[in-house]
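Subject: for your reference before the review

Hello V.,

The reviewers asked for a structural picture of the protein, and I figured it would be easier to keep everything in one thread rather than splitting it across files. Below is the amino acid sequence we used in the manuscript, unchanged from the supplementary table.
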Amino acid sequence: LRSNRSSCYTTREYWELEKRMTSTIDVADKAMPAVGLGLWKIDSQQTAQVVCNAIEIGYRHLDSAADYGNELEVGAGIAQALTKGLCVREDLWITSKLWNTYHSPEHVEAACRRTLQDLGVEYLDLYLIHFPISLQFVDFETRYPPEWFFDPSAAQPKMQIDPVPLSDTWKAMEALQEKGLVKNIGVCNYNSGLLHDLMAYAEIKPAMLQIESHPYLTQDSLIRAAQAYSIAVTAFSPLGALSYVSLDMASENESVLQQQAVIAAAQRLQRSPAQIVLRWGIQRGTAVIPKTINPDRLKENLALFDFELSDEEMAAISALNQNRRFNDPGVFCDLAFNTFYPIYD
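And here is what came back from the structure prediction:
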């Protein structure tokens, strides 16, 4: 693009075009790769090799979480890649998340340090509050990761709510950044009301909002609100239903990849439907973190920066919005964890 700048673009139009085509997004004072590898639902026995393969292919952004139950193996994959000389630690952007049972301020640092220990790194590039849901603390020695049930062996196991103010949790997150354990802090699964409230009390402002977003759940207003606060946005489950079919939280006929707007763009650009949907996410200014263990798809998901969707294609794909949320605690907590706990109205 730099060598092809011409008078057909105004300065602002050129800048916007260049911004849409870039492979990074700004997070505080560092550029984060716009495509990351989502590590949710990767079997622990496969994780180390998948992570090492991904880094060899070119991934530099890894999206992890204590709750995924594979951070020890993620760390092994990172160590393999570093030993092979594929990159150095400073080349990587590593994200992890504070689980619901560690919201009380006295548990936040210990949870972060456990993640650092498992990943085998001295700091995280980004640490996020996983959900605005505070659960009763479960000691590391009792069960790790603790997941959702307080006591899975109970006759009728349930989530045990421990109502810790989110402002208290955030203050403890700020302390992690001040100590250098994490470079940036942010939140996941917040709605606009929680985001406005956070911005009112945060001394260190959130660098990232991570939310479910795909063509069936565009979340335009929330993304616009975050960006107005200069908060970067990462879209998890960027391909929509594909992440949830195996969990019986979506059906195969809900795949956005079958939509004509996606197929038409794929045919015009000679790209896969998945690449079109991921490019749509990138082009709206969000990072995306698709998950796959297939080496060919790892490469495909990274190859998003040598083509561009037209304004008409972007609009057609955005028009697929149904406000269809697949990852909704108000649904899955009730069905799977015997506790009704909505966070979206």
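For the response letter, the relevant points are probably these. The longest strand covers residues 93-98. Residues 328 and 342 are 8 Å apart (CA to CA).

Happy to draft the paragraph if you're swamped.

O.
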